[in-house]
């Protein structure tokens, strides 16, 4: 009985042999099918990016869907909004500490990444 995990007579690892075997295997897709798959994948990627930008537009107050916008505008206004949120969080924690005499719970403390 042979061990299926033992190296073959060539001394190569069976996993390496499988990799080589897959790499040399001819594709069953035609060039047109490959192109269509590529186009379809690219369309899905672009749609996902558009949805992400639309979500940012919905969340960030300075962005509106009515105005034309570039990726740079979306990034810049999103960054500015995050900076404002971190600053607002810091101010509210300080206000809480002044009024109660104790610091805010750690899970409420946001610190701006450097």
From TrEMBL:
Signal peptide: none
GO-annotated molecular function: DNA-binding transcription factor activity, RNA polymerase II-specific; protein dimerization activity; RNA polymerase II cis-regulatory region sequence-specific DNA binding
Keywords: DNA-binding, Nucleus, Transcription, Transcription regulation
UniProt entry tagged with the keyword Transcription: yes
Chain ranges of the BHLH domain: 33-85
Biased composition (Basic and acidic residues): 31-45
A GO-annotated cellular component: nucleus
Region: Disordered, residue numbers: 1-49
Name of the protein: KLTH0C09086p
Organism, as annotated: Lachancea thermotolerans (strain ATCC 56472 / CBS 6340 / NRRL Y-8284) (Yeast)
């Amino acid at each position: 009985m042979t061990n299926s995990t033992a190296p073959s007579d060539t001394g190569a690892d069976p996993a390496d042999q499988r990799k080589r075997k897959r790499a040399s295997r001819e594709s069953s897709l035609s060039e047109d099918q490959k192109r269509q798959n590529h186009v379809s994948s690219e369309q899905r990627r672009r749609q996902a990016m558009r949805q992400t930008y639309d979500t940012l537009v919905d969340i960030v107050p300075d962005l509106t869907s009515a105005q034309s916008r570039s990726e740079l505008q979306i990034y810049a206004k999103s960054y500015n909004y995050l900076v404002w949120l971190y600053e607002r969080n810091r101010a509210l924690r300080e206000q809480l500490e002044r009024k109660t005499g104790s610091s805010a719970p750690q899970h409420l403390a946001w610190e701006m990444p450097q």
